[in-house]
Design goal:
The longest helix has 14 residues. This protein starts with 6 loop residues before the first helix and ends with a helix. It has 4 helices and 2 strands; from the N terminus they run αβααβα. It has a two-stranded parallel ribbon with strand order 1-2. By secondary structure, it is mainly alpha-helical.
C-alpha cells in the first residue's frame, strides 16, 4: 500500500503476480493512462513476461468501465 502513487508500488505488484503465476504469457493487462502505467520500466516488465498492455483512451473513462465490467 502507498499513500500516493509511486512506481515502486506498481512494480512490486507485478513482481508479486509473476511470483505467484509465472506463466502469464498472452495475458492482457488493462490500465488507465496513469503516468506509472506509461513508464518505460513498467511497460518493459510487462513485455518481458509476454503480457500485452491495453490502455484506455485519453479522457474516456468509459473504456475503463467496459473492461472493469468484463
Amino acid at each position: 500500500l502507498s499513500r500516493h502513487p509511486v512506481l515502486k508500488q506498481v512494480m512490486d505488484m507485478l513482481d508479486q503476480a509473476y511470483q505467484k503465476h509465472p506463466a502469464l504469457n498472452g495475458l492482457i493487462f488493462h490500465t488507465d493512462q496513469g503516468w506509472q502505467y506509461q513508464h518505460a520500466a513498467f511497460q518493459a516488465l510487462l513485455k518481458n513476461h509476454g503480457v500485452s498492455q491495453s490502455m484506455s483512451r485519453k479522457g474516456n473513462s468509459l473504456d475503463d468501465g467496459l473492461m472493469e465490467g468484463f
